[in-house]
Specification:
Order of helices and strands: EHHEEEEHEEEEEEEEEEEEEEEEEEEE
Number of strands: 25
Radius of gyration: 18 Å
CATH topology: Jelly Rolls
Number of domains: 1
Helix content: under 10%
CATH class: Mainly Beta
Strand content: 35-45%
Structural class: mainly beta
CATH architecture: Sandwich
Distance between the termini: 35 Å
Strand order of the largest sheet: 1-3-4-11-6-9-12-13
CATH superfamily: Jelly Rolls
Number of helices: 3
Length: 287
């Protein structure tokens, strides 16, 4: 597990492109047959991916967590952006299809990831945060029929925003949030831009009591996303390619524009789960 420390905005304004990418960009997450993880001191979030190939992959705590097992004092959210897969949590098996997800609560000891077909492996992307209480482990589906252990995303948590004229027509699908899938602090969801739209989270904002990690995907090889970060009057950018993630501190904006439409997963950690706690930034304030 790679470990990264927090960064001050006073220092970040002096970073070179290479240093900015080194501190905040997460590359090479989806490696067949491996579990890759980055631990950030910013709200202690772990960003990772498991890509099981021929054999199942077992999630372990590693020396970095100083824990008996990964979720001894943590919770995690997972969204599969690959082929159909299976997650086994303490002996219970969950079939997780493309763009379906899971919440796994604190105290679950044994977690394994496998793919239905090794030729089209699952790509389990996950965020994990510290936890103080155990909430139920559930499978999360954007569509379908509710059943025991399965949560279907509510209609009110599928939000259509923006317009094609403003180049930001997008649909936000909220997976983990209060009132649908309870957690200690973790929230996760997915935003898909419609063809012809390229902007996300614009007009932009900050929120001092929680940070975010974005995973950009569904980006063709010759395309890219410009991820904008930094203080509103000291913005910086990172060029993002397919299936790369970026860490966004609470003091930073977190917005993007692509050379064409794309999809991204957002994960939040911090003391507040209120979506309306943001401090809006007017476009005229950006520098």
């Amino acid at each position: 597990m790679e470990v990264r420390t927090a960064a001050s905005p006073r220092d970040v304004k002096h970073y070179t492109t290479d240093r900015l990418r080194e501190e905040f960009l997460i590359q090479n997450l989806f490696v067949p047959g491996e579990i890759k993880m980055v631990y950030s001191h910013i709200d202690r979030i772990i960003t990772g991916a498991a890509v099981p190939a021929e054999e199942a992959l077992v999630l372990t705590a590693g020396a970095e967590l100083r824990a008996e097992y990964f979720l001894q004092r943590r919770e995690m959210g997972i969204i599969n952006i690959g082929g159909a897969g299976v997650i086994v949590a303490d002996g219970k098996e969950y079939e997780v299809g493309h763009k379906e997800g899971m919440y796994i609560g604190m105290g679950v000891k044994d977690i394994t990831f496998s793919s239905k077909e090794s030729a089209e492996p699952a790509k389990f992307y996950f965020n994990s945060t510290p936890a103080h209480h155990t909430y139920p482990t559930v499978l999360i589906k954007p569509e379908g029929t509710p059943e025991e252990g399965v949560v279907i995303v509510k209609d009110e948590n599928k939000v259509e925003l923006g317009t094609l004229e403003q180049s930001n027509h997008r649909t936000i699908c909220k997976y983990i949030l209060p009132g649908q899938v309870e957690s200690c602090q973790l929230e996760m969801g997915m935003t898909k831009l419609e063809p012809g739209s390229v902007w996300n989270t614009m007009p932009c904002h900050t929120h001092d009591r929680r940070m975010e990690v974005y995973l950009y995907f569904d980006i063709p090889e010759d395309a890219f996303v410009m991820h904008y970060m930094g203080e509103p009057a000291e913005t910086r950018h990172i060029v993002m390619r397919n299936e790369e993630a970026v860490i966004s501190p609470s003091w930073s904006i977190h917005s993007g524009s692509g050379s064409q439409a794309y999809t991204f997963i957002w994960g939040m950690a911090g003391e507040n789960q209120d979506f309306d706690d943001m401090d809006h930034i007017e476009n005229q304030e950006l520098k």
